[in-house]
């Protein structure tokens, strides 16, 4: 009998809240099904912190010896959520997770994937490795229709789970949604602090986008100059505003009339260290209103920050997902296809830079609608666990 039931692979241990939520959701889903935490092992960039956070075994994801041993000693290898197979920044992500799949094949370990975002895949190498790895999954669940379309375009056909069951790609949702009840329970224990939440992150493919979005936030905050925005930022934003619009200033000002959600203090929300550094720089440069920045590291931190929020506007996918979970009116900035796919699925208002008009104020926000109820999502996961782990986990 092997030491582990499941080895869990993802972008874990890098201090990014979204990926840590995916790890937690994967662990709790497996435990709910009957797999004890001592029979799980996480491949992590920070094994000690992962052991402490999740109560599982953990190994260094960069150690070939440790990873090989962990996979060999496990019955299954789970790709536990997130955009693992994409080459938007580099093909290295595809290569790493393809390599894990090859190790699993070598040791005859079953591969499965839950809540996966597949793509974008711009290179032939990325497409080949993603196809090869995902075709060897006995269960392949994607989190949005865009990922499903990528898999269909690549003609990916997962392995059959049994002689009578044909392998197919399942459509689900992001694994973090399984933590909704935890978040709402924790929020009830926090005191309400009316704030409007802002998140910006670096965008290698469009380096100007965070600054453009920051200027839109400044423009939209002009209605509440005395409370929210300092004079230096106000003057900087107004100067850029006049230069962009020139003769169309009155109509642009009128578009600010519907921004009722700004009757609260602004608060920056960083889900990773790079978010905090970027927003601090934009505040210093006068592109973003002066505001405190909350570094959110856990679901409990998120409950404290989102409790009482009157609205949220941001770039990161899991900033949007947490806002949806907390039922907070949201504006998403689709800097990547995964954010655009989420926005379409949850009927979320989006913002983008207008090449002709320049920076435009933010539109009126609305509460996202769940594309899949939490209990339904959990039942799907339970069913997929049963296919891989059997009736007696």
List the helices and strands and how they pair.
Blueprint: E1 4-9, H1 17-33, E2 40-44, H2 47-54, E3 57-60, H3 64-72, E4 74-85, H4 92-106, E5 110-118, H5 124-135, E6 137-142, H6 145-153, E7 169-171, H7 180-188, E8 195-199, H8 209-220, H9 225-228, H10 231-245, H11 249-254, E9 265-270, H12 273-285, E10 293-295, H13 299-306, E11 311-314, H14 317-325, E12 330-332, H15 337-345, E13 349-350, H16 374-389
Parallel strand pairs: 1-2, 1-4, 2-3, 4-5, 5-6, 6-7, 8-9, 8-11, 9-10, 11-12, 12-13
Describe the structure.
This protein is α/β, with parallel strands linked by helices. It has 2 domains: 4-173 and 373-389, 3-Layer(aba) Sandwich (Rossmann fold), CATH 3.40.50.2000; 182-350, no CATH class. The protein is 44% helix and 17% strand. It contains 16 helices and 13 strands. A 7-stranded parallel sheet has the order 3-2-1-4-5-6-7, with helices on both faces. A 6-stranded parallel sheet has the order 10-9-8-11-12-13, with helices on both faces. Helix 1 crosses helix 16 and helix 7 (180-188) crosses helix 13. The chain starts with a strand and ends with a helix.
